[in-house]
Structures are given as C-alpha cells and as structure tokens.
Amino acid sequence: MSETIPVRTIETPPKKKHDAGRIHPRSFRGFYRRLRIAGGSALFALFFGTVWLQWGDRQAVLWDLSTKQFHVFGSSFWPQDLLLLSAILMICAFGLFFMTVWAGRIWCGYTCPQSVWMWLFMWVEKQAEGDRNQRIKLDRSPATLSKLYKRAKKHGGWLLISLVTAVTFVGYFTPIRALVPDLLQLKADASAAFWVMAFTTATYINAGWLREKVCVHMCPYGRFQSSMLDSDSLVISYDVARGEPRGHRKPGADYHSAGLGDCVDCQMCVQVCPTGIDIREGLQIDCIGCAACIDACDTVMDKLGYETGLIRYASERELAGGRRRILRPRLVGYGAVLIVMVALLAWAIATRSLVSLDVEKDRSLYRFNHQGQIENSYVVSVLNKSHQDRTFRLHVRGLDGLHLVNAAPFVVGGGERVAVPVAVAVSPEALPSDVLDVEFELEALGGSSRTWQETTRFTGETQSPR
C-alpha cells in the first residue's frame, strides 16, 4: 500500500500573512507563471469562444432548456441520456484523483476557473492601483479623489469581466446570438436577465472579494487532498536541508562558513502567494499549487548566483534523499479505472440508440369492437434524437391473431417526439389468459433495418360476450 504523505494542516500564523487585512500578492515572473497564463488562455478561449460557434442553423454547444436537449456540435442528448452525463462527471472525478496523486493540487493552480478568474482580477487590480506596496499604501491612505478614481477603475474592470462572463455562461443555455442584442435593447427574457445578473454578482464576489477564501474555506478539495497524496506525489516543497538555517547575508559573503543555508529570508515566496502562506512551514491545506513561490524564489536565486530549486516540485521521498517512484499501486489504479471509464463512455456514445420508444397503455382495461374482438388502446411515443426526418412503422407480437387496427407508417422529424395513438385487437378465443405480455416493435423504413422493442400488457376476457 502507498504511504500517505504527512500534509501539514496548520494555519499560518497572522504574522506570516501579507498584511493584517486583505492579502496583496506581489507581481512576479517565471516559467510557471507563463505556464499558468497558457492554461488560463486556453480555458478562456474554450469558454468564451465555443459559445459563438454555429453548427448548421443552431448554436454548436447549447443546453436548450425549452426542448430539454443538450447539443454538442453534431450530437444531441436528451434527458434519457442522463446516465452519460453522470458518467462524464465520474470520469472528471477520477481524473482529478489521478492528477492529485501524481502532482497534488495542479488542477487548482493552473486550470480551476476560480483561480484563473482570481488571477485575472488581481491583474486588473494591479493595473488600476499599482503593485503590492502601492496597494497596501492606498488601503491605509485617507479617502481622496485619486483613491476613489483608482478604486472605480478596479471595480469597473471587475464588473465588466463579471458581466461578460455571466452573459457567456447564460449563452450556453439561451442562444447567445439572440441574447446579446436582447440585453442591449433591454428586451431580454426576465429569466435570462435574472441569471445574467445573478452570475455577474457571483463572479464579482467570488473572484474579486472572496478570492482565496473560496479555495481555503469553501472548496472541500484542500481538505481531503492529504488522504490522496503519498510520499511519491509531486508537491510544491521547500528544501529544508538546503535552505536552513535561513538568514540575511551580505552579497558575495561566505554564508556557509557563517552556518547559513541558501534561504536569504527575503519573504518573496510569502509576498507572491495568493493565499498568504509561507511554504517554508511545510505543505499546508491553504496551498493551491500555483507555484508562484517557485518562480519568486528562483528569481532571487538567479540574482544571487545560487542554484535554483530551493522551492520546487518534489516528492517527500526525493527530499529525504530517495528516488521517486512513478508507477505505484494508487496511481496505476486510478489511471486504469480512468482509461476503462473513458473507453466505456466512448463506446456508449458511439452505440447509443438515436430512437427512443415508449408505450403507455390507456387507462381503460379493454373494449369489444364492432367485430367482436377485444381491443386495447395505447399511446406510442417515438423520440427521434437524430437531425434527419425518419419514417417508421409499428408491429405488435406476442400472440397469433394479434394485430394493429391502425398500422399506417408515420414520420418523426429530426429532434422531435411524436405520440401515436394505436389500438391492438385479437379474437377472445385466441386469448390464453385475461392478462398477457405483448411486444411492440418499431421498424425504421427507408434503407435502415433497425428495430426497437417495448413490452407492455394486453388485457381482456377469454370468452366472447353473449
């Protein structure tokens, strides 16, 4: 069994925070920052761009609540396909488990929407109010027109981003090419307008005001990650053996002879952290794995001429002088389950039926028609999930002499459901019992030999009326 890494779940002391109040991360540069920008840009392109794509005469990706259909390019999914959505959510969960065992909270640091929008809002804040020290000074300064102007710029930028985000999100449920003009002309549906306002407010509060509090206090992921990590998981780590004892030193001084490690205690790793922790205190639940501290520390090490990697992605086993094991039972297990689930989902989507057949018996038990036959009434519902019109014919089986009274072919349009009333009759002498199972068969005409079956009940009397 894999060991569990002893993740420190201590709260960072207040003196380690950026400021007594709001956290003000310092701007920085580095490899992982560029990697995070690339991941965020891909997420933005996917989120803001996909909603504008067209597929024929409709939006390419649209969850149409009015028709209860989910369109994804050339495929349409109905409530009957809810099991597929559940499977996708399970695959996402196992994918998150796999990534956590492999590299900790890498999802949180690079592609989680909360952290991506949080970094965007912090960039807007920097453009409006300046870098860390300027923002701290602005917070402590008295109210002036200059301060009001800077705050207005910041909050105006936040609100604009929040509004665009909300309109885009609602656009996945209401066709966006009609939604945007309606909103601009104040003609939008009340429901759509409400959700745009609701998501604008939620984005503004979450990314602008709550920020790291969502990751630290509201998201459960950080709470259970310690049970998923093992001693071979890659996590952001401070090399204690190399860095301690930390302390200031003069440039060019022989600090080793003074008994100091490589850490100069510059606090840069603390100042760039969006959650305000000190990574030198060990792995903590507040760490979202953004690697900002790695970029900041490497920058300082480069300036001093020291070897980089004092703070780096490393496993507990590597820090203890061992060699990290990549293939281990927990990681292989999650990976195998993930591959199997993805394969099963692909098979289920490729082989899913594009026609749904439902048969509902009329509430009346039975009746005798003018020919003295026992007759049952049914409503046959046929759902055509494809985008082409299709012609069908019904058959009924289960007993010799059982036949449909009205068996004419019928057409079901693409993406439509048609309810067809039908009657089934049989001679009373042919009935073996008062209740028996019969099978409706739906046959697709026009070159397709596909059939669909549905079993229901037929009721009657075994003797003809006198």
Automatic annotation (TrEMBL):
Entry keyword annotation includes Nucleotide-binding: no
Positions of transmembrane segments: 35-55, 82-103, 157-180, 192-210, 331-350
Keywords for this protein: 4Fe-4S, Electron transport, Iron, Iron-sulfur, Membrane, Metal-binding, Transmembrane, Transmembrane helix, Transport
Coiled-coil intervals: none
Superkingdom of the source species: Bacteria
Signal peptide from the UniProt entry: none
Cellular component annotations (GO), alphabetically ordered: plasma membrane
Region (Disordered): 1-21
Residue ranges occupied by any 4Fe-4S ferredoxin-type domain in the UniProt entry: 254-282
Single annotated GO MF: 4 iron, 4 sulfur cluster binding
Protein name: Cytochrome c oxidase accessory protein CcoG
Source species: Tamilnaduibacter salinus
Name of encoding gene: ccoG
